[in-house]
Amino acid sequence: MDRNDSRRTAPKELSADQVERQRCFAAQVAQMHQSAGRTGENAPGCFIQTFGCQQNEADSEQMAGLASMMGYRITADAASAKLILVNTCAIREHAEKKALSVIGQFKHYKDADPEVIIGVGGCMVTQQHRADQLKHSYPYVSFIFDTGSIHTLPELLCAALQGGKRHFHIPHAEDIAEGLPIHRETSHKAWLSVMYGCNNFCSYCIVPYTRGRERSRMPDAILAQAKELIASGAKDITLLGQNVNSYGKDLGGGENFASLLRDIAALDGDFRLRFMTSHPKDVSPELIAVMSENEKIVRHFHLPVQSGSDGILKRMNRRYTAEKYLQTVTALRKAMPDISLTSDIIVGFPGETDADFEATMDMLRAAQYDMVFSFIYSPRKGTPAAEMPDQIPHEVSTERFARLLELQNAVSLARNNRFVGRTVRVLAEEVSRTDETKITGRGDSPRPIHFSGTPDLIGDFVNVKITSADTFSLNAEIAGEA
Ligand code: SAH
Ligand code: SF4
Ligand code: F3S
Questions:
Q1: What is the spatial distance between Cα 341 and Cα 196, in angstroms, rounded to a whole number?
Q2: Cα-to-centroid distance, 91 and ligand 3 (Å)
Q3: How far is the CA of 407 from the centre of ligand 1 (A)?
Q4: What is the 480 CA–ligand 3 centroid distance (Å)?
Q5: pTM above 0.85?
Q6: Helix (H) or strand (E) run with residue 50 in it
Q7: Helix extents (H) in 70-121
Q8: Which of 138, 158, 238, 356 yields a CA-CA distance of 20 to 30 A from 277?
Q9: Does the structure show a pLDDT above 50 at 6?
Q10: Backbone φ, ψ for residue 431 (5° rounding)
Q11: Using a 6 Å cutoff on CB, does residue 332 contact ligand 2?
């Protein structure tokens, strides 16, 4: 498809002028550090604390890339950093509380060293009441920037270093910034954003307000980045978007998520592809076919159901029924019998009755998920569900939540047991966090697999034989290099 085709409504990419402007600010910041002799070993540290989802992790990699371009050294030590960036999440009240408390703790660093600059980005600050709160109650924060303005970090930092006014304006920008530098922590695993924002407006969810409308990146930009990642050693690439399977709808050029996935899977190289998150209403037969025909696409589908009750699903504005959802599960299992399914569940949505909750329990029994991320409903200011009657008392939600976990843990263990005795190809990802003689990796299923091995394996595919299964992980031994 010609990207200049006048019929298509191409996403608004940042203009060359805007990119150049930020490059100039970045060069000025780098120059300030250089003239103060802060280069090489003496380069100022930049510490980034990330909350929230994979999209935020990907955004933090861009922040780190920009900071590196401006002469900062990325560090895990906040105490020695000259630049502290907090990338916040707003999905539940707990996420916001955690971010605010961490920002509060960083005050000590600023008190000890007035040169420290603290900036706050991410979904939380996109909400006006939080922007105001940071401005008035956190005087040691120099600037905020929303999820669509990450590329303006050089300008914000330049102003802060020159002693300019604190900046608390939220532009709600929805341009796509292509070509930003990216600083990755590991080379073998990579995030690849394919679209931004969400149009679904599930009635409980803050994301459409914090991240704006759906914008798809152009396929050629995504493919070019995928090639770069593979060339630089990425073995496990996760395509990211709040609703990846509606990819392309805004481009008007006939692209869709299935064709994008097919094109990326067709690239040369030994890598595997994951994607998240998919909305159940947008799982097409074409997508299922592309998955089942491509070995490089992992046999895992994260398909959040949220609730098993049709009444609740309707009030959540999810636009599917439990029956329709299970038809999709059946179609996935028919095409890929061993596929791992995972889901998100919200417990205690306003008006949830015992019968509604039992319908969710039935859904867990019917769908047989490998893993479920469950959350107690948290009212989000400005969303329709926060205004709904019959908010559920916390004791009721926590009791339901505990029962749900108990059921799912039993299902997960049974699902994990199916792997025992099998040989699985895993990507060795890291030294086990609980046993340094072990390596942790993953196969297609998102469950961690622990096996005895040495760190030199990290970043390689290894064949392991599964010896036993727990509720949350699998144990294995090396069966020979893949
Ligand atoms: N776009 C993705 C992810 C959204 S956030 C999707 O549609 O699945 C991840 C999960 O957080 C959601 O799937 C939902 O289960 C949960 N969540 C979102 N808003 C919530 C709220 N207000 N309270 C509790 N959980 C919430
Ligand atoms: Fe939120 Fe729904 Fe969009 Fe997911 S699909 S980000 S739950 S509004
Ligand atoms: Fe949180 Fe924003 Fe992700 S609200 S879950 S960081 S999209």
A1: 24
A2: 6
A3: 21
A4: 40
A5: yes
A6: strand 45-50
A7: 93-112
A8: 356
A9: no
A10: -70, 135
A11: no
